[in-house]
Amino acid sequence: MQFLVALSRASSTVTNHCLRHLRSTCNVAAEKVTLTRLKQKHRKQEPITVVSTHDYPSAVHVDVAGIDVCHVGDSVSMVIHGHDTTIPITLEQMLAKRPLLVGDLPFGTYESSSNQAVDTAVRMLKEGNMDAIKLEGGSTSRVVAAKAIVEAGIAVMGHVGLTPQAISVLGGFRPQGRTVASAIKVVEMALAFQEAGCFSVVIECVPAPVAAAVTAALQIPTIGIGAGPFCSGQVLVFHDLLGMLQHPHAKVSPKFCKQYACVGKVIKQALLEYKEDVINGSFPGSLHIPYKICEAEANGFINELQRLGLDKAASAAVEAVQNMDTSKSNGKGNSTKD
């Protein structure tokens, strides 16, 4: 079972029964990836693989593939709920019922004070059954909040560079660290998070030399996203790397993402074929009508409908029986398309 970081469900709760099922059916990793395991990989300079995903089925795919870290944060606001930014997501939508999780603190749930940050983090662990949280940097108050959460006994992952929750200040989804002052700020913020006790730092959308400097300066793992090849590990969003997003979300597909598949086209084609089959009546065919009623019971059912005065219903049942018999004799619905 891989280390599931921030595996949060926005639309429904994942139960512990699902987790037990996942553990029983996935056999890729004999050893669970924990924070200690991540530290060992970092010490050995073994690359850490991370994928951001947002629901249980996607997490199963990530887990079976043997990915080290499954990270889902407030990006669920965009790829699941269709918002243009991460800001609208709520704490309630970030909470889940799966263990071994680290969840992003949503915008508006930790900025006011360290007490608010700790209270939110505690809620994420107690109600969401998570093991740790992640919060974005950008100011001293965020580091203070991270330190307070760590001192409360909760593991924290930091986030520097482009911080999506602050796009109103940054002027949109703009890369950071492209000037001396901005690059130094990224390094200093990462060092501050380490000093606050964070176990890892995400570096987003900065030039590769800046990310390399941050990685060399820190003693904890760095996870890059749009930050070049010199981080301790890499992360991409599940929907982006699989090419799942179609219009209108494709417009926000990041330039740094490598698309390993075009699943969105496959999904679109499958849905179009399903729609066509329903409209032309070829689905469901005989192969997909598994539940039968014997002739005697069917006749009895029709007679009982007539006795009850439901002649229209009885006629519909008779016609259905006749159509099923005709389809069976003609072999209709037995094609591979059905």
TrEMBL record:
<dbReference type="InterPro" id="IPR015813">
    <property type="entry name" value="Pyrv/PenolPyrv_kinase-like_dom"/>
</dbReference>
<protein>
    <recommendedName>
        <fullName>3-methyl-2-oxobutanoate hydroxymethyltransferase</fullName>
        <ecNumber>2.1.2.11</ecNumber>
    </recommendedName>
</protein>
<dbReference type="GO" id="GO:0015940">
    <property type="term" value="P:pantothenate biosynthetic process"/>
</dbReference>
<keyword id="KW-0566">Pantothenate biosynthesis</keyword>
<comment type="function">
    <text>Catalyzes the reversible reaction in which hydroxymethyl group from 5,10-methylenetetrahydrofolate is transferred onto alpha-ketoisovalerate to form ketopantoate.</text>
</comment>
<dbReference type="InterPro" id="IPR003700">
    <property type="entry name" value="Pantoate_hydroxy_MeTrfase"/>
</dbReference>
<comment type="similarity">
    <text>Belongs to the PanB family.</text>
</comment>
<comment type="pathway">
    <text>Cofactor biosynthesis; (R)-pantothenate biosynthesis; (R)-pantoate from 3-methyl-2-oxobutanoate: step 1/2.</text>
</comment>
<keyword id="KW-0808">Transferase</keyword>
<dbReference type="GO" id="GO:0003864">
    <property type="term" value="F:3-methyl-2-oxobutanoate hydroxymethyltransferase activity"/>
</dbReference>
<dbReference type="GO" id="GO:0000287">
    <property type="term" value="F:magnesium ion binding"/>
</dbReference>
<dbReference type="InterPro" id="IPR040442">
    <property type="entry name" value="Pyrv_kinase-like_dom_sf"/>
</dbReference>
<dbReference type="GO" id="GO:0005739">
    <property type="term" value="C:mitochondrion"/>
</dbReference>
<dbReference type="Pfam" id="PF02548">
    <property type="entry name" value="Pantoate_transf"/>
</dbReference>
